[in-house]
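Two folds, back to back.
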Amino acid sequence: MTQISSNHKDVIIIGGGLIGLTMAQSLASHGLSAHVVDRADPHAMMVKGFDGRTTAISSSTMAMFDAIGLGEKLDGKGCPINQIWVSDGLKKGALDFIPEAKDGFLGKMFENRILRQKLYEMVSASDLITLHMPRNIISQSRDDHRATLTLDNGDILTASLLIVAEGRQSKTRDDAGLKRAHWQYNHIAMVGAICHEKPHQNIAYEIFYPAGPFAILPMLDNEKGQHRSAIVWSVDEKDAPAYLKMGPRGYAAELETQMGGILGKIDLAADFASYPLSFHNCIDITANRLALVGDSAHGMHPIAGQGLNLGMRDVAALTEILVEASRLGLEAGDAQNLARYQKWRSIDTLSVSVATDILNRLFSVSGKTASAIRRFGLSMVQRTKPLKSFFMSEARGESGALPILLRGERI
């Protein structure tokens, strides 16, 4: 008979970011226990003050947050996105997505710090979740019976399943031999936030330039009543250093030019950060007693703002599988669960990732002919209701085989 230690739980989650903590809370809200291990200090990630980093949460992800009890803690903290406006370099032939009044918002914009803070408060209060943060992993192993981790303080953790939410550079994924297709885009994303003269009216703008997409995402006004938006600006990697060396005034002036004066005069609300853009997708997202979620399994261009939401679909699907399995008396790490998760998520993640990659490449082609073709395509979508409804469903995260949690229902 296999001995079970007092440190045994249903799952061990490596990674205490937004995906890892949501995974833990999602399982705990249905009675399953979890260890969460991360080498980062959670308090350092939640320091007071706005650092410019934001996340667009789709309406389906918000429905899941409501179902697991997080939604009420975020009430009033996010800015609804009521319309998405898409254009090819601010030229004629723009496309706008405006949902019916009965359908509500398309998504909400949150400061990352607030999302982390509210998630951390929830998981810290749960009797089913044990946080090991900050802690380094000294060793780990998986066999036919369990997954085992040894931490730098001597703790030995065991679980039926190891869930990997480490992010794009996941060592656990690589050590498990889970191969991925990946490439660099030779582009840099510059991310930050601005205060602006005109109200954004809850509109998200996606402006495509040959050098890369330029997104303006609505945020709540600050405590002074100033209008705010988040910026995600993709530029060629050879041009990024020059932009990042600009002073606040020069940078603001350049942003105003890129925006075509849509929101009037602007000032920087936080320093801009930058990171290289890349694509990766794992063919296999499971191994013996191991499952990948979020960026550990897939990463894409931010052109459609679906990266985190795609990871939340992983969370919702894996939660559904594990909860249903537990009610049948199966362990979390049972091979049947992993096979179901692999089949369910691998097709969806690949299709969304590839579609995003193709979209980025199409809009990166320069020249008048390419621009005219793109604008014709945008106008066709604008006039074709079924096509427009399809893309709106994608923006909401409501396409494909939708897990129960993403419908706002408990399992």
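---
second:
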Amino acid sequence: MVLFLRPIFGAPLAEAVKRTALYDGIQLPAVFRECIDYIESYGMKCEGIYRVSGMKSKVDELKASYDREECPCLEEYDPHTVASLLKQYLRELPENLLGRDLAQRFEDACSRSAEADKVRMTTPG
């Protein structure tokens, strides 16, 4: 009998934490935590670490490993590939990372700031 696990990419954050957390008290999925740790160690001096894309085939390779709940050796990959993997993980989360309440608050704050800028620009100084 073959057992198929649901992929980690696209799974709700709480489920991913439950299935892959590193059990060090920090409630993050392994893919998120390992990518952040790697980028802090090896990628902070890379120009455009989150802007420059990594090699798609390598990102797909890493994604497949995490979806199988394996622990790939990120040190075998370049920082841009690991950063691209992290961005892809965040894009594929089924719910907004901030939650509906916080997302709405950010949207409200941004619109208030834009309205205030318009008032300042039209008010004679």
